[in-house]
């Protein structure tokens, strides 16, 4: 009996498990201790910004920054430095991760124009959260794989092709959108972001993917509904039913747990995310199959414009001699569809949002100037007859859009990480430092702009560029990794906004008068609370 007990004890895994757990715990302590030492001894404490006494290694400024309106702490530190020429602002995130905000346009140029075509780039993005949603594509790839994707996708975004795709799809969507606003005009409150997201989804769906998301069906239901006696509910729009859009919405619910799992490569434990990804994969695969079928059956002599995805598929599928490295497989194509859907519709909808915000809350007097310029060039046109040639003739409207992008850039910041120690203007930036390019602050930097906090479209109608440095204006970023769809976004916004601003006068909803709006950014720059407006037919 005793011998059996002894034998069982000797083969027990408990000592081995205890050794592994102890080793893991000691390794964890070692990593955190070395992280703490790097944080404490970092040369970045010498920079303007947060001070070591004001933050703790574990949490840094994370909660202070996340609870404050967008960029308010950075603006406070900049004022405290009392030096317009300071190149950096320093802050700390969780677990001693240092962040350096770059305010010097020369350094911004150096970072953004660094070669991203090699796998040992000095600056990388490391977008773990987006990787878990979009997969690997133009936004998330680095090095040679990013270069390959950019090279293959770029021909589909030639201005001629973008123009044809937009002009064949946007006018019909815009007419439907304008008709909804006419039907529900007066005192009916409009949730600006929801409405423009629906319009841009339908435009990008048809122009880019040959797919109808039926997003405006929800706006039509809203317009057809009787006014609610409860004014607070009058702006509510029925939810969209498209499976791809629903799954996108589920994946972009950034709960603290979801973010922590993504940053620690544990997203596979997130059951909700896994289910939504499966739905999204199936929906995107269906879009890809449908575009291929259209290419197969379309008569090229019909004159019907191809979607950008159809153009990409024709180049990808028809030349049997093309090497595999110059093709995108189905998984890669699906990831690029998700990438462009997110970046394309979100950017344009956000730009339209800020146009409405400025015209309603900050500069209602400019509304008549914009409308007059649009009317000057389009009085002979029906709503569905606007085209790119016409909207590009509108000089004041164009200047107004550029100034909106300066004042409220859809992407308020971009993030990179250093892969080696960097000497930037005499300051040592250690390896693995989080580098923030604060587009919002650069667009208002007094070193580069005259009257930076004054909204002035006329500055864009002068002979020279209004900024004293070309890298002080970057609403779509700059360099090799600039937004490949920037021209698409600008033309789409103009085709959508020009008829609306000609047809309607815009005012803030009565329920939002005296509301204090603050800036916030998740994917793009927004206000909290979200803007609601009312419109009247001109």
UniProtKB/TrEMBL annotation:
Q: Which UniProt keywords apply?
A: Heme, Iron, Metal-binding, Monooxygenase, Oxidoreductase
Which PROSITE patterns does UniProt cross-reference here? CYTOCHROME_P450
Q: Which residues bind heme?
A: 483
Looking at the record's lineage, which domain of life comes first?
Eukaryota
Q: Does the keyword Heme apply?
A: yes
Q: Which InterPro entries match?
A: Cyt_P450, Cyt_P450_CS, Cyt_P450_E_grp-I, Cyt_P450_sf, Cytochrome_P450_Monoox
Query: What name does UniProt use for this protein?
Result: Cytochrome P450
Q: Name its species.
A: Chaetoceros tenuissimus
- Upper lineage ranks? Eukaryota, Sar, Stramenopiles, Ochrophyta, Bacillariophyta
């Amino acid at each position: 009996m005793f011998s059996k007990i002894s034998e069982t004890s000797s083969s027990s895994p408990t000592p081995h498990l205890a050794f592994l757990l102890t080793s893991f715990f000691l390794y964890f302590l070692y990593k955190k201790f070395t992280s703490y030492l790097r944080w404490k001894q970092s040369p970045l404490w010498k920079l303007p910004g947060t001070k070591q006494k004001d933050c703790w290694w574990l949490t840094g400024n994370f909660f202070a920054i996340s609870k404050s309106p967008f960029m308010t702490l950075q603006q406070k530190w900049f004022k405290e430095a009392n030096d317009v020429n300071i190149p950096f602002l320093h802050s700390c995130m969780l677990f001693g991760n240092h962040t350096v905000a770059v305010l010097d346009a020369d350094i911004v140029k150096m970072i953004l124009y660094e070669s991203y075509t090699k796998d040992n780039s000095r600056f990388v993005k490391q977008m773990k959260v987006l990787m878990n949603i979009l997969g690997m594509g133009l936004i998330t790839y680095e090095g040679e794989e990013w270069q390959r994707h950019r090279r293959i996708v770029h021909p589909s975004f030639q201005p001629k092709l973008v123009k044809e795709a937009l002009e064949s799809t946007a006018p019909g969507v815009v007419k439907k959108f304008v008709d909804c606003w006419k039907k529900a005009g007066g005192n009916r409150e409009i949730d600006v972001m929801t409405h423009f997201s629906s319009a841009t989804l339908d435009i990008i769906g048809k122009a880019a993917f040959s797919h109808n998301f039926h997003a405006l069906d929800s706006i039509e239901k809203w317009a057809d509904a009787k006014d609610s006696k409860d004014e607070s509910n009058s702006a509510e729009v029925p939810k969209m039913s498209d499976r791809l859009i629903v799954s996108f919405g589920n994946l972009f619910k950034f709960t603290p747990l979801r973010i922590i799992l993504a940053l620690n490569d544990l997203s596979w434990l997130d059951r909700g995310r896994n289910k939504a990804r499966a739905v999204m994969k199936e929906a995107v695969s269906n879009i890809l199959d449908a575009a291929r079928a259209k290419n197969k059956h379309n008569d090229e002599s019909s004159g019907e414009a191809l979607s950008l995805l159809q153009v990409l598929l024709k180049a990808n599928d028809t030349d049997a001699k093309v090497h595999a490295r110059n093709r995108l497989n189905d998984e890669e194509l699906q990831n690029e569809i998700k990438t462009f859907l997110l970046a394309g519709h979100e950017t344009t909808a956000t730009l339209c949002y800020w146009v409405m915000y400025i015209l309603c809350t900050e500069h209602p007097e400019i509304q008549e100037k914009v409308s007059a310029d649009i009317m000057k060039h389009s009085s002979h046109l029906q709503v569905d007859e606007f085209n790119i040639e016409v909207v590009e003739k509108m000089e004041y409207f164009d200047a107004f859009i550029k100034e909106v992008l300066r004042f409220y850039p859809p992407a308020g910041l971009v993030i990179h990480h250093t892969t080696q120690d960097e000497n930037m203007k005499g300051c040592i930036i250690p390896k693995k430092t989080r580098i923030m390019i604060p587009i919002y602050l650069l667009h208002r930097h007094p070193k580069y702009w005259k009257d930076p906090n004054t909204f002035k479209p006329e500055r864009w109608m002068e002979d020279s560029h209004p900024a004293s440095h070309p890298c002080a204006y970057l609403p779509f970023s700059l360099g090799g990794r600039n937004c490949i769809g920037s021209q698409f976004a600008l033309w789409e916004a103009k085709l959508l906004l020009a008829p609306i601003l000609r047809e309607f006068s815009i005012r803030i909803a009565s329920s939002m008068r005296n509301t204090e709006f603050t800036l916030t950014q998740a994917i793009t720059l927004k206000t909290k609370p979200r803007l609601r407006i009312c419109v009247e037919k001109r």
